[in-house]
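hey all, quick one before standup. I had two proteins in the batch that finished overnight and I want to keep them in one place so we stop losing track of which output belongs to which input. First protein below, input sequence then structure tokens straight from the run.
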Amino acid sequence: MMRRIPLCLLLSCALLFGAARTASAIEVKISSQALERTLRAQLFNGADGRYYMRGDINSACYVYADSPHVTFMQDRIVVHVHARAKLGTSVGGLCIGVSMDTNADVSMIPVAQEQIIGFRDARIERLSESKELNFLLVPFLDRKLPDQMKVNAADLMRQLLSQSTQTTGYAFTLSSLKLHSLFVEGTMLVLDADAGLNVD
């Protein structure tokens, strides 16, 4: 399971090299690719990497998003998704209606919330031309997607460090973590935090 969430490795490595017995300041730089892999693991983890807003893989009529791509633009994180829909009425296992393919973009500002890497101020940058499809896309883009991108950094690091005895011979435990700030700097998301690490 931990292999699917690469932020664990990034954050824990920062602790190993930057933390002491008492809480110490650390800086972690997170790439857009790491955020993208986390988003895929936490939200786009259904069949074929899809997230269904209506129906499922067995439905004749459906709406789903897939192929998330994360980039940085100035001080914002941009998530691009592809959306596909068959809208209409299911008759005899077929969807009688219209089929649509579109792309949509949402941007947001990263925010540190105690131990949580969170996101606020979601702003939809691009939508489809279909009002019916947008009725489903809008709440997905500005609420569901930012909420599912949240990462509890302390929980993830504790999970990874629980394997430290087997892998290193030392028992590493996280004693404290407090995130202070998150901001985009060029091609990286920079996290500033105070953290404490014990070694037995």
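OK second protein, same deal, sequence then tokens:
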Amino acid sequence: MTQAKNQITPWLLLLPATVLLAVFTHIPAVMTFINSFYQTPRGKRPPQFVGTDHYTTMINDPVFWAALKNNAIYALGTVPASIALAMLMAIIVNSSIRGRSLMRMSFFLPTVLPMIAVANIWLFFYTPGYGLIDQFLGLFGFHETNWLGNPDTVLGSLMALAIWKEAGFFMIFYLAALQQISPSLSEAAALEGTGRWYFFRRVTFPLLMPTTLFVLINAVINAFRLIDHVIVMTRGGPDNASTLLLYYVYNVAFRFWDTAYASALTVVLLLALALIAFVQFGILDRKVHYK
């Protein structure tokens, strides 16, 4: 009886989390995949099976390709910059610098602010002529710029906000990893006359690779997941220059009410993220040092 109880107890403890995960993650994902092969029901008209018509439409959809291109540029711009900035900030606040507690709080503060609040703050920064950025650049003779209204600058403006918002969150993981590195390693390197850059490149960075892999996966997911700032600041404009893939899914599903086509777009988005994660694990996991 006791042995049977010991075998059942772990499964009972896992049951609540399993049910929540199935109800809110796995079942919706399966239903989304199934719905992508049906037509969106209208009124009393039931959904009809259309096969791969939505995926064919997607291939010929210029807005989809524009959103995919924007998202790729957005990810390539925000992910490496956020990780590098987070690592730099973690190294700074992990040192014996004065006021490091205040610096830690300052670096982490953007993380606790809601993205909608942050987007509204940065709207003021980007206001042509009156915004903080134009006021500062005006001191050096630069003319005012419509940062969010120019197709050449709007995506970069959103990327700058995302880097500022996410770097502090990733810094926490790097700070925890740095504090796990034994001080004896740096002491031995100092006795051998090793420079700081060489020690970081040969010792610190390899030991941070498990954290980097974890942060990289989360950063890529966030690059395709976060759209609050797009909704508040640009709504995908001008001329879809800032339309990201998930924002396009949101528009198709809730503005055009074409849930079936939105399901097909979601399936493609999930497959893209799964492929990226698989490549990341396949490449970086070989370079990870867990001890």
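Flagging for whoever picks this up: The domain at 62-287 is CATH 1.10.3720.10 (MetI-like fold). The chain has one domain: 62-287.
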